[in-house]
Specification:
The complex is a heterodimer of chains A (about 290) and B (about 750).
Chain A (H helix, E strand, L loop, with lengths): L4 E3 L4 H11 L3 E4 L5 H6 L7 E4 L9 E3 L3 E5 L4 H5 L2 H6 L1 H7 L5 H6 L2 H7 L7 H6 L3 E6 L2 E6 L4 E3 L2 E2 L6 E8 L5 E8 L10 E9 L5 E9 L6 E2 L1 H7 L6 H13 L11 H24 L1
Helix pairs in contact in A: 9-10, 10-11
Chain B lengths: L1 E2 L18 H5 L15 E7 L5 E7 L1 H4 L4 E6 L10 E3 L4 E3 H8 L4 E2 L5 E7 L2 H9 L2 E6 L6 H4 L13 E3 L2 E3 L4 E9 L2 H7 L2 E9 L11 E6 L5 E5 L4 H12 L6 E5 L15 H11 L3 E4 L2 H7 L6 E9 L5 E13 L6 H7 L9 E9 L13 H18 L4 H7 L19 H10 L1 H4 L9 E12 L4 E9 L5 E5 L7 H13 L6 E5 L16 H28 L6 E4 L2 E4 L2 E7 H7 L8 E8 L5 E12 L4 E12 L6 H20 L16 H4 L10 E7 L20 H13 L10 H7 L6
The chains are: A alpha+beta (about 290), B alpha+beta (about 750).
The complex binds flavin-adenine dinucleotide (FAD).
Chain lengths: ~290, ~750
Amino acid sequence: MHPFVYAAPSTVKEAVEILTKHGDKARPMAGGTDLLVQIRGGRFDLDMVVDIKKIPELTSVTNNNDGLVIGSAVACHQLYEDDDISKNYPGLIDAATLIGGIQIQSRSGFGGNLCNATPSADGIGPLIVHSTVANIQGESGTRSIPVEEFCTGPGRNALGKGEMLVSLSIPNKGKGFGAAYERFIPRNEMDIAVAAVASSILVGSNGKISEARIALASVGPTPIFAKKASDFLIGKEANEASFKEAAAIAKSECSPIEDMRGTIEQRQHLVEVITLRTLNKSLERIEG
Amino acid sequence: MVNVSDSKNYKVIGTNPIRHDGYDKVTGRAIYGADVKLPGLIWASIVRSPNAHAVIKNVDTSEAEKIDGVFAVMTGKDLPQQEDQFIDHGEGTENVAWSSENIMATQKVLYKGHAVAAVAAIDRYVADYAASKVKVEYDLLDAVTNVEDATKEGAPILLDSLVGDHLRKKVKNTNVASITRHEFGDPDKAFANAENVVERTFTLQMVHQGYIEPHNATAHWDEEDRIKVWTSTQGAFPVRTSTAAILKLDVSRVKVTPLEIGGGFGGKIPVYLEPVVSILSRKSGRPVKAVMERSSVFQASGPAPGGTITVKMGTDKDANIVAAESSIKLEAGGFPGSAVGAAVQCIFAAYDIPNTRIDGFDIVVNKPKSAAYRAPGSPQAAFATETVSDELARIHGMDPIDFRLQNASKEGTRRADGVVFPKVGNVEVLEAAKKSDHWNSDLGTPAKGRVRGRGVASGYWFNVGLKSTVNLSVNSDGSVVLVEGSSDIGGTRTSISMQAAEILGIEVENFRPSVGDTETAGYADVTGGSRTTYATGFAAVKAAENLIEVLKDRCAIIWSLDKNDIDFEDGTFFASKDPELKFTFKELASNLDNTGGPAASSGSVDLESAGGAFGTHIVDVDVDTETGKTDIARYTVLQDVGTAIYPAYVRGQMAGGAVQGIGWALNEEYYMKDDGTQANVSYLDYRMPTALDLPNIETIIVEVPNPGHPFGVRGVGEVPICPPVGAIGNALHDALGKRFYDSPMKPGRILNVLGKISD
Ligand SMILES: Cc1cc2nc3c(=O)[nH]c(=O)nc-3n(C[C@H](O)[C@H](O)[C@H](O)COP(=O)(O)OP(=O)(O)OC[C@H]3O[C@@H](n4cnc5c(N)ncnc54)[C@H](O)[C@@H]3O)c2cc1C
């Protein structure tokens, strides 16, 4: 680690200018709970740290009937302290309440979690199953992509030079929608998922599933949108039997490695177990 | 509390006063090793091996030396050459030649993280940068990281100079540093006649003590070749002995000031940084400080050995254990000296067995040199014995506590290694366990998807005595200054003062206790072996008794009487023949200036033995059979503590030891990669339990006073880490119907034993 300059711009435009100018030698800092650890650990060799928490647009939350827009520097607690958001976005809240502990949740949020792009990130699966779109701004303008396309490899994302994440747009699916996120860790806190699954379903009044999304974490180089398992559920009855089949398909969609946190088979097994659990929980939440 | 003694009426012993170090610690004012600041202080950074096993071909420090802000660079060649020379620290002996090579390698690196060079610079960042510019050339060798691989034909040999002692035969070209055997009776014949025989082999992984405070040291080498060292340690005097020996200086040239210590558990007995910062200080002329990174603490301090243990036990038709046999192979790390010597003494200590054979193997492997960790060797041994014992109890259809009671060691039982037990509390603890609320409670119903089971296991630690000194002096306001040379890890400033206070008949609040440096305190061995409340407490009792004699002299002067006519009782001095003549301790203190000035005394001991102690733990586990995750639903620790001087401390030790054992059983391990290096070098991935992983640990104190101590104290700190691994294994069996022979019993292993996954 060597001395670096701390910048705190007040507009996205200014932030983008600094990032463009310094390229690899600058990084945005939202909560800093990943970034500071990484700088100390020697992963980045930075001249410039760009604090984006002073940009009002990035720390604000807009919640209306159509959906939710969260600035990229919004902290977890801003979401779970709002009853309305907690009711409509249960998958996000599952993650927001388990990332780190109270201190971490008070500084950090989904923007940093997504940009950090680790395969085990607890926020990304829930964003995927809530059909989130990432809004990006760079020197040449703005663009939007679905979150499942945001992570490109372990610690790598789709942002180009000078680009930054501005906000996340999440549709409000309304009545009949349920979502849940669960991770498996050997302890009860302060751990990285051995395997994790986020699920969501939209169930019509006929009891049939009209939309379904399943996302897997810690079982591949990026969080995985389990498309086959998700598609399988469309048109099926929302019950344990369909969920079991979907869970078996989800298991086949992961590609874990063996490391100190778990073996390949253990992770595949856990994906099946947790997929079933989160689908059941999503349904329970719909049925209230 | 279960009181087995005819207890005396103590005033101070058995109470829980506010601890003397409490305010400073809770307000953050206490000074720990990393807080040391001195004028002109510079920082050291250590260059460590990235390889598990390699020959050092060349160390090039030239580039590092040129960097702005660098004051000094050293390699292992800057440490004096050493011959084999052995120092006994009570909890483990040290060969100075190997210690020196462990502190900084000159020939070979034997584990990842092994120090090869060091840099001192103006600040931490420059020091780290300069350290990264030291170029070390290595010839890589194959690494062996467990006892099986290290003892295979053709295994790479770690130490060319090692001459193994294999049952008194000298053997060269080996990784087995020693093989010992303790034999008693005729085990072969007894096994042949036994009704039931169970033989199992267990594996355990290396684990770390996990103290929060990393190792640290600051040193200043002055123009007169005197070294001042500031460090967090379990023993300032042993640090002085080791540092002086490694630097080939007289002990009087080294002064060690111990700071507050943020945990040690045995791991803060060896020196790692002290000689290094001393040499860097000599080279730079500045005081130099070093603080280890957490990853270095894992990779380059002294964890507890893993290994392979086989236990075979046989019973007759009446469920009496008639024979037991064990082979204990423990990994010493890069240099000889695992805890196997202690393990062989503990493995069958809880049982009265007429025929035993115990073989111990000390084996070097490419891992950090192991050190003491709370009852070194005994938790590993207890996992094996207590599992086999549980299996035998089930075969006989017996309650596991009844089986243990029937076979329990007691006063007069001879251990295989020859020791005959004096009064010990094994039976009393088991009886208390049998009567406990936990043992008699229903298992209850776990949450959906989980199964619950209950297990029990016992454990033993012999504890040590050794040398301690306590100095007392009286202030004119009636307060007493107490100086101990023992590092205070568990609150001994208060528990030692309490023992002196009881003798002097005054309140412990009148004491001003402190831990002295090596030039203000009298000599004390390490705070280890659960010895401090016992041995340093014994010294305090002697010092207090000596002080009473001094004060009687003063009464004699004031009253113009013969000393023999002065009596002392309950804190009051009085003339035996004239009840009008009396002084409270405080009154007398205010009169000292007129009767010859300061009153001071000293007490010291060198105790050969200590009261060994037993504990029994009961645990309920809840297992999620789909994920393999285990939660501890209820946990009770019972232990014979002799006499609880400060019961809240005693309960803290009992709960703390159990918690470390729970971590050992469930998740903790050195996870080794194929290249022989440790993967999980952070607390994130080392997975010690956090508060959310633990229930309230219930504690039941059993008091069977130790006849060898004035108040009956036994060591309490180490026993409680011995039973947990076995107890949890037995509880898992009760829950799942499957036995566990490998630790940790982590979720993946549980899924594997349940047949849900194959690896
Ligand atoms: C003690 C502890 C516990 C933790 N526990 C968990 C856990 O349980 N689960 C979990 O998933 N994570 C955990 N983390 C990791 C971390 O807290 C989370 O990933 C968190 O969501 C990161 O958010 P942040 O705002 O702090 O990100 P930062 O550290 O500020 O940023 C993370 C990365 O994203 C980049 N970045 C940030 N904002 C932008 C932007 N707008 N545009 C482009 N790039 C950007 C940064 O440059 C950096 O590379 C833990 C961390 C700690 C220290």
